[in-house]
Design a protein that fits this description.
Elements: H1 6-13, H2 26-31, H3 39-79
């Protein structure tokens, strides 16, 4: 996130009002300039992150499917609907 960037934190730390909780006045907030990379560079940075997020979502979905299958097989074995061959 932009707010976690070192440059942003350094700029904000100079204008924070410290107390029980750090805060910033609305005037200071409006006057603060955020330095962002060009949109094309932001897209280049975000592209691999989106790919990883998609792979993670697919993996989580696959794990959910495997969990469902495992539960169904376990239930079938416990109820006797599924019998193992070769067992004595």
């Amino acid at each position: 996130m932009v707010l976690n960037l070192v440059l942003w934190k350094a700029q904000v730390s100079r204008i924070l009002i410290t107390g029980t909780r750090d805060r910033m006045s609305l005037g200071n907030y409006k006057d603060t300039v955020m330095i962002l990379p060009p949109l094309e560079e932001q897209c280049q940075i975000n592209s691999p992150i989106e790919t990883i997020a998609e792979k993670l979502a697919a993996t989580v979905d696959y794990i959910g499917q495997l969990t469902h299958i495992r539960s169904a097989v376990s239930q079938g074995l416990l109820t006797g609907r599924i019998l193992l061959q070769g067992g004595k």
